[in-house]
# Entry
Amino acid sequence: DYVRLDYKYTTPNSDWITYNSFAGTPIINISFNILNLRDDNITFRLVGFDDLGNSKELYNSDFWFIKDFNNHLDFVISEPNTETLYELDFEDMIDIGIEVYPVDNDISKVVVETIYESFELTSPISEDDHIYFSDNGDNKRLNATFYDIIGEEFSSIPITIKLYQDAALITSKQIIITVTDTIFDDTVNISNIDISISNGFHETFDNEYWDLYNVSNRFIEMEKDLNYLF
# Structure
C-alpha cells in the first residue's frame, strides 16, 4: 500500500526519524532530500505497510550514506552570552562557561579566542540526535589582567567562536561580553527618602522602606508602590 522512509544519525542516542511516506503500485518512487539534514553518517530504512496496516521492515547495516555539505553556517552559543554580566573570581579570572551547539555532527573542534587568549574544545558530547561542546569539568577562564578591568568600571571583551571539521575552519561567530570587578547581590533597605517631582508633587517617606535589589556597581533597581495619583 505504501512505504515509510526513516533515518537516524550516528550519535549514540539518536532515534529513528520519519522522513516521509510514499504510495504507489507496483513500483514506488522514493525521493530523499538530504540538504537540511545534519552533516553526519546517516543510516536509513524502509518500512512497508499493506492495506490492513501490517508492516515489514527493510533494513540492514549497509543502508547508510555520508552527508558532508557544510551548509549549516549558523550555530548556537549558549555560553558565554551577551545577556550575562561577568565578574572576576578570587584569582582575578573570568569564568565564561563555554557551551556551543553546532548544527552538524561532524564538527570535531571548537576554538574560543580573544585577542590575548585561545582555548580548544575537542571532545564533542552526544545528546539525542546532535552533539555539543562544553568546558564543564574543565573550566576555561580568561585572565582579567589582559583586559583592563578596573574597579567598578564595565569592560567589553570580544570573543570569537570558531567551528572546525578536523583542520578545516567551517564557520565562526563573534560575541561581546561585559565584565566588571564585582557583582553585589545583597538586598539593601533605605528609609526617609525625599522625592521632588517637577509638577510640584513633593512627599517624604518617613519610616517607610524601599526594596533595592540587583545592586550591581552602577545599577540599582527599586520597587515601591506609591499608591498616589499624579
The domain at 76-180 is CATH 2.60.40.10 (Immunoglobulin-like). The chain has three domains: 2-67, 76-180, 188-223. The longest strand covers residues 202-216. The chain is about 0% helix and 50% strand.
